[in-house]
Automatic annotation (TrEMBL):
Gene Ontology molecular function terms on file: metal ion binding; peptide deformylase activity
Protein name as it appears in the record: Peptide deformylase
One Pfam entry name: Pep_deformylase
Source species taxonomy: Bacteria, Bacillati, Actinomycetota, Actinomycetes, Kitasatosporales
Cofactors that this protein relies on: Fe(2+)
Broad class of enzyme this protein falls into: hydrolase
């Protein structure tokens, strides 16, 4: 029994494919529900909160505290009806994000990435998608933002195992958006001044549909 526990501790949370990327599309509903049902939903921090505007700390401890945080992040993401959530969006200064996001083929991806780093793509692989983007930390606001329609992220899972995640279309946008969060960038920081002002106007004119932390 003890040996089995040790093996499980060192095994990756998700299986990988022949190229070494996690397979995050198997049993997504069951896995997301297991995380969420263990967790407690927390309110979302919004633009202006200092924790959103600086690089987060690296995750160095992969134990029970991180597991509880991940569970709470899935619960919070579900409450807010989001497809991705970074730790600083619930006020925690750590480089970890969770996702429950479909790609453009309708496949549902569910997973956790700690200490993410976006892989720099060669120019010939940077095909831009100019779809609308929104953010739980800028509630009710949307704006078109050009991002590559393919993304790769390296990092670690919640047990500290090295992982690689890749996505196309909407899921690629999610991977880029959430990684940005952990380095202190909101999507509105990538907009022109006029577009940013318009997004903040949208936010001011509407009420969020989920609990948020008011900025003092």
């Amino acid at each position: 029994m003890a040996q089995q526990d040790t093996d499980q501790q060192h095994a990756g949370v998700l299986p990988v494919d022949d190229e070494g990327f996690v397979i995050d599309t198997e049993d997504p509903a069951e896995r997301e529900a297991a995380y969420r049902e263990r967790g407690t939903s927390r309110p979302i921090t919004v633009v202006g909160n200092p924790v959103l505007h600086k690089e987060c700390k690296d995750v160095t401890e992969f134990g029970d505290d991180l597991a509880r945080l991940v569970d709470d992040m899935f619960a919070s993401q579900h409450t807010a009806e989001g497809v991705g959530l970074a730790a600083n969006q619930i006020g925690v200064d750590l480089k970890v994000f969770v996702y429950d996001c479909p790609d453009d083929d309708g496949k549902r991806h569910v997973g956790v990435v700690c200490n993410p780093v976006l892989v720099e793509l060669p120019a010939e692989r940077r095909q831009l998608d100019e779809s609308n983007e929104g953010c739980l930390s800028v509630p009710t606001a949307y704006a078109p933002l050009a991002r590559p329609d393919y993304a790769e992220v390296t990092g670690q899972d919640e047990k500290g195992n090295p992982i690689r995640v890749r996505g196309t279309g909407y899921f690629a946008r999610c991977l880029q958006h959430e990684t940005d969060h952990l380095y202190g960038y909101l999507y509105i920081d990538r907009l022109s001044k006029r577009e940013r002002k318009d997004a903040l106007r949208q936010m001011a004119e509407n009420e969020p549909r989920y609990p948020v932390v008011a900025n003092d």
